[in-house]
Amino acid sequence: MQKAIENLKEEYIKNISLRSSTGALEELKVRVDGKDHKLQELGQIIRKNPQVIVINLSGFPQTIPAVLATLQKSGMNLNPQQDGTTLFVSVPPVTKEHRENLAKGAKALFIKCRDSIRTAQNDTVKKIKKSGSVSEDVSFSIQHQVVAIGDKFVAEAEKIHEIKHKELLGEKK
């Protein structure tokens, strides 16, 4: 259950931010020669300034067309410019529509986290019920504790989601 919370935080940091971060680009999957590679495996990604991210593909220049296509299709509203083996990616200004799309993505990640917590909780409860080595009273007590722990983790995930949602939509805290 804690792992689900950590995954949620990690996904929010990498993929759900107002500014396109180098972390979001690093994790993009680029298809080269029938295999998927993370962009960070193919080139060096550097934030030159707040508006420009530079991707140096001198190590694998043959991947440039695939990287360009991946960046354009990424849904991050990116339009990379090529100069030799270097790509310059302008970070677009943040629009209301972009904020709303990020908020939808954040909600989807929260729901995925909540569902994985509930699945772990239900699996544990089923194992306790099947286990005949403890009395019914003890089993019932353990089940309630597992449910309470699961509810606590869901509440924590919900709190993280609410903070991120407010941040994305520019609402006051």
UniProtKB/TrEMBL annotation:
SUPFAM superfamilies: Ribosome recycling factor, RRF. Residues 8-169 form the Ribosome recycling factor domain. Pfam families: RRF. GO terms for molecular function: ribosomal large subunit binding. The keyword Protein biosynthesis applies. Belongs to the RRF family. This is Ribosome-recycling factor, mitochondrial. It comes from Phlebotomus papatasi (Sandfly).
